[in-house]
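Private note to self, pasted from the team thread so I don't lose it. Backbone tokens:
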């Protein structure tokens, strides 16, 4: 291989690497094209249309949010959120960049919501080279986009939930992101760190709460709901109304 050929090859590889990094940036919207994502995205869009322009409560997230739809979990959703015009905007496997793409491409349009609950970022944390500040920046872009398209809405931003049976580097990464996003509240944005509620006193995670130490059981969804229900009522303007979901 000639010297010129080696130089050109190096340049091409560098450009490709930069392009891939940009596509995978937590702050750069990225569409997914897999069959499951397309189907789940359409389901959310259809649910939004059914609301005829008015949504009380929208949960934005990944599979942890998505699985409110599952057997046993749906009953918990109905118990706490069934009295609201509520929409589940979670898609399995989504990272911040995928949520950004969805929100930029229709899922904030055609309606006015009262409260968004945002819990996203765990799928940005599986790689060994995760940079907490980059993930936090992606979450901030989601908040900014919601505020720009839904200025009337309140936003409840939640900490990323812990993962793994015992303390591990992945939890430390998520905790570092939570420390950064805890500084985002202001105006319509409110923050709650409820990560510790899923942990046992010895910092382990029970399979009764997270069977795979990632996704929640019905008991886990009860913990989530109990942790935020009063704050949701407050943001809805119901703190003193006596209304219970």
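Design output:
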């Amino acid at each position: 291989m000639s010297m010129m050929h080696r130089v050109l090859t190096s340049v091409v590889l560098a450009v490709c690497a930069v392009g891939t990094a940009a596509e995978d940036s937590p702050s750069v919207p990225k569409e997914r094209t897999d069959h499951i994502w397309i189907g789940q995205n359409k389901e959310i869009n259809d649910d939004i249309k059914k609301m005829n322009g008015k949504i009380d409560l929208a949960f934005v997230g990944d599979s942890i949010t998505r699985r409110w739809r599952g057997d046993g979990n749906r009953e918990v959703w109905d118990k706490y959120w069934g009295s609201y015009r509520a929409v589940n905007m979670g898609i399995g496997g989504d990272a911040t960049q995928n949520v950004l793409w969805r929100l930029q491409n229709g899922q904030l349009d055609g309606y006015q919501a009262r409260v968004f609950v945002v819990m996203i970022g765990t799928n940005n944390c599986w790689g060994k080279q995760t940079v907490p500040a980059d993930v936090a920046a992606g979450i901030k872009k989601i908040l900014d986009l919601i505020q720009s398209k839904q200025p009337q809405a309140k936003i409840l931003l939640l900490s990323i939930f812990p993962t793994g049976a015992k303390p591990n580097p992945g939890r430390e990464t998520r905790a570092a992101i939570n420390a950064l996003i805890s500084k985002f509240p202001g105006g319509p944005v409110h923050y709650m760190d409820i990560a510790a509620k899923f942990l046992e006193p010895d910092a382990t995670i029970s399979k009764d709460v997270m069977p795979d130490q990632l996704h929640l059981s019905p008991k886990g969804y009860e913990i989530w709901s109990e942790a935020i229900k009063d704050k949701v009522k407050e943001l809805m303007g119901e703190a003193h109304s006596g209304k219970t979901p």
